[in-house]
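FW: tagging you since you asked about this chain on Friday. Here's the raw sequence from the shared folder, copied in full. Didn't touch anything.
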Amino acid sequence: MADIRSVTIEDVAAAASVSVATVSRALRGLDNVAHSTRQKVELAAAELGYVANPAAAKLAAGSSKTIVVAVSNIAGWFSAQVVGGVEAVLSEAGYDTQVMGVAGPEARRHFVASALQMHRRVDGLVMVDIRLEPDEVDALRDTDICTVTIGNSYPGLSSVRPDDISAARLAVDHLLQLGHRRIGLIEGMPDDPMGTEVSWRRREGYEQALTRAGIVVDPDLLHTGNFSIEGGQDAMACLLASPKPPTAVFAISDEMAMGARGVAVEQGLRIPEDMSVVGFDDHPLAQTVALTTIRQDPTASGAHAARWIVEDLRNEACNLHTHEVDVELVARRTTAPPC
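HL: got it, structure written out here
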């Protein structure tokens, strides 16, 4: 049996081959966990000698035991997975999770202004895909609130994110290696007032891959999908209406990719013979539709951020942390050489 004091919820998740959010739900007896999965989690926890310690937060004397998670897209799948990872670790440590939607510059300014007054009511902040102005970064850095950003990064604040440029290059290089030369891009919200880095960094990776292959970027092959299935559908419809449609499309989220794939099929195209599609994230439905994608683990990203905050609060010091999220290409059945 492992040393009980050293076993964490992440250890149980790894042993059971599930997410930390699933471990948290299973061990709390919530209904939305399959019986077989619950048994697997309980067995892993027993073998490791894992015991959740809700009293751990009492180590931070006088703390509020509350961590705020601010998300720019509160209804999105990615944000939900991050929150699940945060909540699982915080629940283990005895902290509460408060989720706040911050959708737009005005909401962001209000949130940051409020955060500066939160130091007696909030112990930490996790900010998911939220752009901060330089003065807001300075203000947060000067507080005693431990802050971690996910998706974006700023000097002096801890951050968790993948190398989006390299990850996008990986997706486009896969299509290039298959022989595609007209490759469309369905991006997120490049003109998003929240200014998240994800859209422009993945577009930069797309453009770099094409340039390295000696291909001139065609503006007619770039369309916005707003990180939604509906946006992906609209973007693919525009691409297919082009005088010279692409033979392949890279969508910078799986939700947009699945929407794009659906429109292509509706218009009589065969996937992947007539149109190849690559997504990003490895959404649970990606495997169902055999979508080729770039896999990342947003639940693990949330758990990483929460673990840092808990450890820093225990040590009574907000340290600077950075973590680059691992990604990998998962080649399924939506990509093939062009006919």
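FW: The first strand starts at residue 66 and ends at 71.
HL: agreed, and Confidence is low (pLDDT under 50) at residues 1-5, 54-62.
FW: great, closing this out.
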